[in-house]
Sequence to fold (182 residues):
Amino acid sequence: MTLRSPIRASQITALQTKLSELQDYRQQLLSVEQACESALGQVGTALAMLNHVDASQIGTFKAAVDAQFGTDAIAFLESATPAPAETVEPAEPVEPTAPESSAAPDVEPAIDVEATATDTPATDEPIVPTAPDIEGLLNKMSIQNIRKLASAKGTDTKGTRATIAARLKALVTESDIWDATA
Fold:
């Protein structure tokens, strides 16, 4: 039986620090992902509205969006490139050793290691933009406009905005919503 060097407390601390840094970075990525999804939804909504109001201006809108990716616009953003972290080499696994004669035979030394789990599993699936949230758009309408739309679609106009929106979501398109609010 060969004995290997035990894991040092400094190695455990370094690994815990690295784990914490990686979890922070992952959280930042998730925040960026949510912001991007929100921005894509807003661009989609603005494009649909522009298409409904004046489709000839779509090129101008596209140019304005493209300008956000120009080097001048990005130059104002702070770099998010993290400083390279030092690499921590994990120690070799340690085989258990027999307790010394002075220790009680049934007592094993305790090693405190904090383990954390992530609450969001990582997926390899790409994020696909979804169709506009019809029910969400309906819920943003005034109660008067949503009742007029319900009446025009031949459905019950009684209830709260949410209940009317739930009935209308399968009956209307985004264009119907923009027409009702215009």
Observations:
- The two ends are 82 Å apart (CA to CA).
